[in-house]
Amino acid sequence: MPELKTLGLFLATALTEIVGCYLPYLWLRDGKTIWLLVPGALSLAAFAWLLSLHPTAAGRVYAAYGGVYIFMAILWLWAVDGVRPTTWDLVGSAVALVGMGIIMFAPRGT
Fold this sequence. Notes:
Elements: H1 2-30, H2 37-52, H3 58-79, H4 87-105
Helix pairs in contact: 1-2, 1-3, 3-4
Protein backbone atom coordinates (compact mmCIF):
# COMPACT_ATOMS: atom_id res chain seq x y z
CA MET A 1 0.00 0.00 0.00
CA PRO A 2 2.84 2.52 0.54
CA GLU A 3 3.64 2.14 -3.17
CA LEU A 4 0.15 3.34 -4.14
CA LYS A 5 0.44 6.27 -1.74
CA THR A 6 3.81 7.19 -3.21
CA LEU A 7 2.51 6.96 -6.77
CA GLY A 8 -0.57 9.05 -5.90
CA LEU A 9 1.62 11.65 -4.25
CA PHE A 10 3.85 11.77 -7.33
CA LEU A 11 0.82 12.22 -9.61
CA ALA A 12 -0.56 15.06 -7.47
CA THR A 13 2.88 16.66 -7.32
CA ALA A 14 3.27 16.53 -11.10
CA LEU A 15 -0.19 17.96 -11.69
CA THR A 16 0.44 20.92 -9.39
CA GLU A 17 3.75 21.65 -11.09
CA ILE A 18 2.27 21.47 -14.58
CA VAL A 19 -0.68 23.71 -13.64
CA GLY A 20 1.68 26.13 -11.89
CA CYS A 21 3.74 26.47 -15.05
CA TYR A 22 0.86 26.34 -17.53
CA LEU A 23 -1.06 29.29 -16.08
CA PRO A 24 1.81 31.79 -16.47
CA TYR A 25 2.38 30.31 -19.94
CA LEU A 26 -1.21 31.22 -20.83
CA TRP A 27 -0.61 34.78 -19.64
CA LEU A 28 2.73 35.15 -21.43
CA ARG A 29 1.98 33.28 -24.64
CA ASP A 30 -1.75 33.63 -25.17
CA GLY A 31 -2.35 37.07 -23.64
CA LYS A 32 -4.68 35.79 -20.93
CA THR A 33 -5.27 37.78 -17.75
CA ILE A 34 -2.34 38.46 -15.43
CA TRP A 35 -4.53 37.16 -12.60
CA LEU A 36 -3.61 33.64 -13.74
CA LEU A 37 -0.33 34.24 -11.92
CA VAL A 38 -2.11 34.00 -8.56
CA PRO A 39 -3.43 30.43 -8.91
CA GLY A 40 -0.20 29.58 -10.74
CA ALA A 41 1.87 30.67 -7.73
CA LEU A 42 -0.45 28.82 -5.35
CA SER A 43 -0.12 25.70 -7.47
CA LEU A 44 3.69 25.93 -7.40
CA ALA A 45 3.59 26.42 -3.63
CA ALA A 46 1.45 23.26 -3.38
CA PHE A 47 3.98 21.50 -5.60
CA ALA A 48 6.84 22.34 -3.21
CA TRP A 49 4.77 21.27 -0.21
CA LEU A 50 3.81 17.96 -1.85
CA LEU A 51 7.47 17.22 -2.62
CA SER A 52 8.21 17.61 1.09
CA LEU A 53 5.70 14.87 1.97
CA HIS A 54 7.65 12.08 0.26
CA PRO A 55 9.18 9.72 2.82
CA THR A 56 12.63 9.21 1.30
CA ALA A 57 15.76 11.26 0.59
CA ALA A 58 15.10 14.38 -1.45
CA GLY A 59 17.56 13.49 -4.22
CA ARG A 60 15.91 10.12 -4.76
CA VAL A 61 12.46 11.71 -4.77
CA TYR A 62 13.52 14.32 -7.34
CA ALA A 63 15.11 11.68 -9.57
CA ALA A 64 12.09 9.37 -9.46
CA TYR A 65 9.62 12.25 -9.72
CA GLY A 66 11.04 13.11 -13.15
CA GLY A 67 9.62 9.87 -14.55
CA VAL A 68 6.13 10.63 -13.29
CA TYR A 69 6.39 14.21 -14.54
CA ILE A 70 7.17 12.95 -18.04
CA PHE A 71 4.11 10.68 -17.94
CA MET A 72 1.84 13.48 -16.67
CA ALA A 73 3.18 15.94 -19.25
CA ILE A 74 2.29 13.52 -22.04
CA LEU A 75 -1.21 13.13 -20.57
CA TRP A 76 -1.45 16.94 -20.42
CA LEU A 77 -0.38 17.13 -24.05
CA TRP A 78 -3.32 14.92 -24.93
CA ALA A 79 -6.00 16.14 -22.51
CA VAL A 80 -5.33 19.89 -22.49
CA ASP A 81 -3.36 20.67 -25.63
CA GLY A 82 -5.42 18.27 -27.72
CA VAL A 83 -2.36 16.65 -29.27
CA ARG A 84 -2.51 12.89 -29.54
CA PRO A 85 0.73 11.35 -28.20
CA THR A 86 2.78 9.35 -30.66
CA THR A 87 3.82 5.78 -30.04
CA TRP A 88 7.26 7.10 -29.14
CA ASP A 89 5.77 9.53 -26.61
CA LEU A 90 4.03 6.59 -24.95
CA VAL A 91 7.10 4.33 -25.09
CA GLY A 92 9.26 7.09 -23.62
CA SER A 93 6.73 7.66 -20.84
CA ALA A 94 6.65 3.95 -20.07
CA VAL A 95 10.45 3.83 -19.88
CA ALA A 96 10.43 6.84 -17.55
CA LEU A 97 7.85 5.17 -15.30
CA VAL A 98 9.89 1.97 -15.17
CA GLY A 99 12.89 4.08 -14.14
CA MET A 100 10.81 5.74 -11.43
CA GLY A 101 9.72 2.33 -10.15
CA ILE A 102 13.28 1.08 -9.99
CA ILE A 103 14.49 4.16 -8.15
CA MET A 104 11.63 4.26 -5.63
CA PHE A 105 10.77 0.64 -5.01
CA ALA A 106 14.00 -1.35 -5.40
CA PRO A 107 15.07 -3.22 -2.27
CA ARG A 108 17.71 -1.37 -0.30
CA GLY A 109 20.17 -2.51 2.29
CA THR A 110 20.11 -0.13 5.23
